[in-house]
Amino acid sequence: MQKNEMAKDLPVMEEQDSTCKICLLSKQARIPFKGASWRATEKLELVHSDVCVPMSEASLNGSRYFITFIDDFTRMCWIYFLKAKSEVAEVFMKFKCLIENQCGRRIKVLRSDNGTEYTSNKFKCLCDEAGIERQFTAPYSPQQNGVSERKNRTIVEMARCLMQEKDMPLKFWAEAANTDVFLLNRLPTKALEKKTPYEAWHEMKPSVKNLKVFGCVCYTHVPQEKRRKLDQKSEPGVFVGYSLQSKAYRVFQPQTEKVIISRDVTFLEEEKWNWKEGSKAEKGVTQKC
């Protein structure tokens, strides 16, 4: 106002560099978070990890949590399901052995939040013995672990969409989340230049010819050894994902409440199971569970 003469009789004021304590107590805001300025230049140079908040309902095997591990260089993601947070150290050791054997490299840095599952003495000893440097986010600053936080959010949102599309019960959240990660690893990401995480990690392009609609009705062939002469040659079920150990599908059989692995499956992708009546719903008919 003084410089532009916007008012009369203004006292002469000088700028002061000192910080006003009253303003700090009344107006202080958080320092803006800047985008990541550093990226890993090789596999396992940096791994992001985070445990998702507990789900309202247990999964088919009784899990309520999931934990993700993301390689910063390739953005390849792995997901594990937990019944309790105390299992994190054991799961991390299992993950570490798997990927280090796959790529012939060792994990150098692990970035996570300050959750007790990561700061426990057991987890600390595992990292110290393996020579893994640990990076923690500042308290109440999940933005500093943005890669894992955003990935977990994406997984939960995708799982919700997959289940709602076929009106599936909440107990299938783990199957949906596992399918999400399978798909995300085979989809493009802004973090990579014209590559999918699968290709960046395995150094080969993924095949998508086996992709099917999650939650659709399907029929699984019954092996000759498990049926009599005039028995039905297939059984109805619900498609709930892909097997990571073999070229096969995961099918939930409502009659037995079990998930089976089979490659001989016929899919009716536009149909969904009627969970109220215990039978498949008609094509195009919406059934609320």
UniProtKB/TrEMBL annotation:
Alphabetized InterPro entries for the sequence: Integrase_cat-core, Retrotran_Ty1/copia-like, RNaseH-like_sf, RNaseH_sf, SH3_retrovirus
Pfam families the UniProt entry points to: rve, SH3_retrovirus
Source organism, top-level taxon: Eukaryota
SUPFAM superfamilies named in the record: Ribonuclease H-like
Any one biological process term the GO annotation gives: DNA integration
Gene3D superfamilies for the chain: Ribonuclease H-like superfamily/Ribonuclease H (3.30.420.10)
A GO MF label: nucleic acid binding
Ranges where the Integrase catalytic domain occurs: 39-205
PANTHER family in alphabetical order: RETROTRANSPOSON, UNCLASSIFIED-LIKE PROTEIN, TRANSPOSASE, PUTATIVE-RELATED
The protein's name: Integrase catalytic domain-containing protein
The species this protein was found in: Punica granatum (Pomegranate)
